[in-house]
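Async update (no meeting this week)

Hi team, since we skipped the sync, here's where things stand on the single-chain job. The sequence we agreed to prioritize is pasted below, unchanged from the tracker. I ran it this morning and attached the output directly underneath so nobody has to dig for it. Comments welcome in thread, and please keep replies under the output.
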Amino acid sequence: MAKNTPLTGTWALVAWYNVTQDRKRIYPLGERATGYISYSHDGFVFVHLSAADRLPYAVNDPFGGTAEEDAAAIKSQITYAGPFEFHGDHVIHRVTQSSCPNWVGTEQRRMVEFRGEGLRLSAPGALFQGEDVTAIVDWRRATQ
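Output:
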């Protein structure tokens, strides 16, 4: 089913930070995190966020990392995908694949705010690093 929404296309990460109950900003992947979110015409969303300076494995083998290398790799990125539904002021991501196994089978609701040429997705009541936060992710249209 073709979907043409204001979200359709690929967006590049500007910033991701979480706001705690006492208004403190936390940058889970650092202030220089990178990433993309892409909303396809056929109704799927693909998200990948990562820290700017991820440590490489000692060997060039995606399944050859030590336990320590694997832990650092998983904690320095988030990725997920699945169908989406756009509802104007919010979008629902139905997660079918994720680097966080607990997200598979869940609905991730994001509030949508268009800000000039940019996009802000936010998730009040999110649990990150043991705290109840509002996750805020700012995007701009991606260019090559």
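Quick observations from my side:
Helices lie at 67-75.
Residues 67-75 form the longest helix (9 residues).
Reply here if anything looks off.
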